[in-house]
Amino acid sequence: MPATLAHGVWGILATPFGDDLGIDEGSLERLVDLYRQAGAAGVVALGVLGEAARLDSNERRRVVERVAAGGLPVVAGVSALATAPAVEEAVQAAEAGASAVMVLVSTSDADTLAAHLAAVSQACGTSIVVQDHPATTNVSIGAEALSRAVDVSCVAAAVKEEAPPTAPAVARLVARVQVPVFGGLGGVNLLDELAAGSSGAMTGFAVPEALVATVHAFAQRGYDAAREAYVPWLPLVLFEAQQPGGVALRKEILRRRGVIATARVRAPGLPFPRELDAVLDAHLAAVDLPMTAGART
User: Fold this and answer.
1) Against a cut of 0.70, is the pTM above it?
2) pLDDT, tens digit, for every residue of 95-105?
3) Domain region containing 191
């Protein structure tokens, strides 16, 4: 069995773009540094938040290379559902420095999924984070079939469980698998997932310090302490979770924090709606989060 992922917060990274919509490597480095300073266990590049589907293969390689140079363990997302293109993406990510790849659940058949996971891992030489995200794949798989695929494949380092309602899905998996199970979906259900036995959060909330504080509080002092740490951030978590357009909302917060230079997203992504300027101002003021000078310009 491969080494499992460390418990804690794994940050899903946005891919920062400049005004010309090229990759802004300086902003990407600052973003990785934000997660390192926050105490994240590692980071995930090329997820949905990273707009991986809007990057060409050379850009995807460069993103992983720059992220891997930041000193944190790196998981690279694989967006393909079929085995051959998933292998191609995974091999490239491993060559660029990823220590594991995140592979979507692409079928509800346990043995077929196990063979898919094993083929990807064998080709790229890394372990697999199995991502159950039916909103992306339209594939629904129960805990029994998913746990069988994890056990039979013998390549999983963790499971990212994002099938709503996530807390009972996490609990069912935790009872069946020997690898860590993480929640996602922006951290909206973080408290419930921790109570259900999750090993932490794997998401891209623009204030990772809050997620780290919540997960640490739960591990050290239990639910009440975690709730106290998390509740002040819940309105901002929900603000970011709005769809469509959630990527731009998160990028705008990161821009105002001075982490990335622009909140630009690539088409067909929706830009940050200026009608929400005052609402975001209120959310940020409520948590007293430091902003850079002229953040709204």
Assistant:
1) yes
2) 999 999 999 99
3) 8-286
